[in-house]
Batch of 2 targets.
Target 1
Amino acid sequence: MLNFPDLATLPPEAEAFRREVRDFLATHLPPLPADRRARSWMGFDAGFSRALARQGWVGLTLPHHYGGAERGAFARFVLVEEMLAAGAPVAAHWIADRQSGPLILRYGSAAQKDFHLPRICRAESFFCIGMSEPDTGSDLASVRSRAEREGEGWRLNGSKVWTTYAHHAHFMIALVRTAGTPADRHKGLSQFIVDLSLPGVRISPIRDLAGDAHFSEVVFDDVALGPEALIGTEGEGWAQVNAELAFERSGPERILSSIVLLDRWIAWLRETGESRHAALLGRLMAELAVLRAMSIAVTARLAVGASPVTEAALVKDLGTGFEQSIPTLLTEAIAADPATAPPDELLRALAYVAGMAPSFSLRGGTREILRGMVARGLGLR
Amino acid sequence: MDSLLTDAAADLLDHACPPALLRALLDPAAAPPEPWQRIVDSGFLDALLPEAEGGAGLDLAGILPLLLACGSHAMPLPVGATILARAAFARQGLTPPEGAITLAQPMAAPSPAALLPAPHLAAQVLLCGTEGGALLLPAAAARVTPLGGGLSRLDWDGAVAGRRLEDGADWRVAGAFLEAVEMAGALRRVLEDTLRYAGERRQFGRAIGAFQAIQQQLSVLAEESAAGLIAAQLAATGPWPDPLRTAAAKIRLGQAAARAMAIAHAVHGAMGITEEHDLHLFTLRLQRGRAAFGGEAFWSERLGRAALRETGDSLGFVRRCLDPVA
Ligand SMILES: Cc1cc2nc3c(=O)[nH]c(=O)nc-3n(C[C@H](O)[C@H](O)[C@H](O)COP(=O)(O)OP(=O)(O)OC[C@H]3O[C@@H](n4cnc5c(N)ncnc54)[C@H](O)[C@@H]3O)c2cc1C
């Protein structure tokens, strides 16, 4: 049986930190219309990430020794919540801050930590995640990209796809096969830190339905990797990648992807004095309040060093459902009276979020895969 | 949640209201008096009164385990309402009335009327006032019309003398709070029973819980139960039910109940709609709770209007008005 953690509250230090984050955003957030801010954590702006790094908040949970802020899970919750509510363009440093940095801290050698972590904290190194491949989606253990030993190092062949911002990243942490065949499943997988500037790496951005190019296809054609590219233990890639996915699933970003659109709509309701959609707004507020409380409850488990994998999957499934319901419900509300003229900015934000919403329950593990994890937590499999 | 209180509450309800007794309690002709006496003897009824006045000095979080246990036992005796009513009378310096007090939303009618579950189990009915405060009427003085689903309509003669509680409180909030929290308990029970059934019932040579289609539904049920428990905890903070946090909990539990009832019955197959099986005791509890003291539409409208009156973004509203420390 699954016992979801009890209600928890953010500690006063975290609320004090919120004020600092707000001050930072007031001076450093570029003025962007709602439809740009609605890109949420897909908005890329290296300059913004560097400003955040100068403030000391990239590598927020990494040790001081490497230039990190050495803050805990609650501070991270607050920073992410404020950034996403403001629609700050966080994509450049996002993956390194959220998962690659913590992964390197946990599994990396002293040399790997000394090399990568300070660069991450200065927002000089951007990372991407190389898990999915053309024939590997939900079934991650079926990866075919392969690194063969060659001399001291490795030779890498294969391809990755849907790799978010590979075309702007400096490094990829890739899950590849180092022994056996795809039939060996979880055995024989390893993770590598691939320098994307090496010869033989070809990166082609893929345009999405909104006209953006955030993800790429990455082809490895006889890429020569040094021995220092292997991260963690050879053959332990499966366990490592699952620990990494747990970092990826637990944050407020799984609730707030449509929040800029929602807030723009609320602003319009207030401007026009329109109250006929009050009930819809109330329903969304109730859901948001409960999801946020659930996310804080999971954060409190992280803060004491637990690994709430099932709980994070549960909140992500509910949270992405909420994010997806917003454009669906607002389409209906905004179109309720064909004679009104909603602001262009609201319509653009709606068009963007409605188009991208299906991806919310795909990226980071699909709805069906997450529900399978919850079922496992319930003892059903 | 305090585990000592949780264990004590579960223990009390396991003894006062096991499923076998529950059926007897629901029967107006056969309802035994012992369960109520057990509750009285437990001292829980004055849980919200200060210790100096013979109470336990608890706040809402302190009585939450008991209320959840009432929900998970589909307790038909009005334990939560009696606790809140006794505290309210005492706070006004009045002696609380004797016996079980049920809270009810009055219906628009020329003379007092209300919808009520198990009216035979209440000594007094506290009717929520529209302008705050409430009116206490003796249950025995009402004409009772059964409506199905465990619900009856009670009509009082316009001349019947009641006792007024002029505390200015919006008792609909208190009613919605109790329903929401008990629904969270019932939802948890529905999850546990449905999981057990999915492990026991076999078809096509396997437990039905081994089928992915069933697993995915049970995961949704578990998600709704987890959301319901957090919503209940969010509402059960502070000394008295807060209108906006109660609104959020009532809305979220109404949604959760609708989803949960459908899944639980789908997984149980035909067995789940029999009188013999216990499932309906808990799904009917959810159904009644969803409709009582205003459904999702009523509380959503209220919560939405409150949000429109504010300035700033949605998360700011949530932090100011719907946070456990707000
Ligand atoms: C915006 C975006 C950004 C992304 N960024 C990255 C990135 O940076 N790096 C990276 O590696 N990947 C990334 N991905 C890829 C993402 O991880 C995959 O989309 C995801 O794992 C699902 O794989 P798929 O798209 O191949 O779908 P499939 O696995 O082909 O699934 C298709 C459908 O089949 C269902 N299905 C599959 N298996 C089962 C099963 N066992 N039981 C029931 N149903 C099943 C799925 O739930 C889904 O509904 C990104 C995706 C998106 C949309």
Target 2
Amino acid sequence: MTHIPVPPPMSLLAELTHRCPLQCPYCSNPLALDGREHELTTDDWLRVLEQAAELGVLQVHFSGGEPMARRDLPDLVRRAAALGLYTNLITSGVLLTEATLAQLAEAGLDHVQLSFQDVDTAPAETMGGMPGAQEKKLAAARLIVAEGMPLTTNFVIHRGNVGRIGRMLDLAVSLGARRAEIAHTQYYGWGLVNRAALMPSRAQLEEATRAVEDARTRLAGTLAIDYVTPDYYADQPKPCMGGWGRRFVNISPTGHVLPCHAAETIKSVPIPDIRTDSLAAIWADAPLFRLFRGTDWMPEPCRGCDLREQDWGGCRCQALALLGDAAATDPVCTRSPDHARISRILADLPETPPPLVYRRYGNAPG
Amino acid sequence: MTDAPAPPPVAEDTVVRFLRGTRLQHDRVRDQWVIQAPERAFIADPIAAEILRLVDGTRPVAAIIDILAQRFAAPRPVIAHDVLEMIASLAQRQVLTA
Ligand code: SF4
Ligand code: SF4
């Protein structure tokens, strides 16, 4: 086999833990949540950071679960910063205090992405399943801005809060955020379980898009807005992770090395493990990474499609979840022979949303 | 960035600096300059890199223009035009601030 050198990843998603005080029903974590006893040690993560920097990773996103549930977070940030990695903390904010923030800032943390479930307290706390969370998040935002740390606020959108996007963005501005992410729920993991309860209608999606466009005009120069749409309503899928094994590498709390956070659902090849192999070797050679890298694996209609290097055939985990075949064209694509499945799912959305299934250890259906 | 209005002009006596959370960094592995910013890293083209390497939070834009005009033995107005345009666009992209 010829060996074309594989360009190194740009970003590492370090999922430090699945523990989290919240229980969002749209959480993108897998249904089988890793327990604390199986988590990588501090030394494991320090080694991962070194290997990542050496390989060519530029940014590390500390995520979870709630990454602040790990006491060694400041040590990991300090090492990453010393290695020249850009350090981003993706947090719910409920564990953040003046003291922990000061520690992280001193360790060299570059940026915080803080998630909100909603702009109003009652629906926010119904979604997050944690009473008192909203006030803690608002306090966290104020501390971050007072520290001078750049802040991005993240709002996950679903049918219940889609009408409040304008006000979410106003909240972001009033808190002093530089950026805001309005991200429709992605239907993997817990989001997929709760799809019927969360998916907006097409009319709601259009309303959401208008609200974002209005705010972009209204807030130009004050707030940069990233907008992530639900791909069920698109004609073409998203370039999931910028293409399989091209830009991102994800490491799970137990050390599984994955091309995307849902890739543990693919059972046809072994899951690479950072405790037994180096990041460079896994990135270049692990069967899981080679499986869908580039365009050689593609079936029709992707194979002959002129958009194949734009969206890379869409999301493998979505093809697996919806069609039972990870190597199929993502069915959200209108060119997919299975696209009717998506139309049917959308047509069958219930008038009244079913009860939410909260993201909790032991709460996964089936 | 398609709907962003044209960036406001920058005066030559302005002292620009990197916004906290952004920096210029040499990417050893790919041998290129990158701008590290919140949740994205983008490649700094050679002109942007030349300019950004002179941004130290004390130098006014005029001094950056002088240095580059000398270094590239180019007419000052030409360099000034490029530098001012680049700085205005980087300010709009939340990389630099006055
Ligand atoms: S989405 Fe909610 S439950 Fe999942 S990690 Fe984030 S805050 Fe925790
Ligand atoms: S056919 Fe494949 S490559 Fe073409 S747009 Fe659809 S998913 Fe993308």
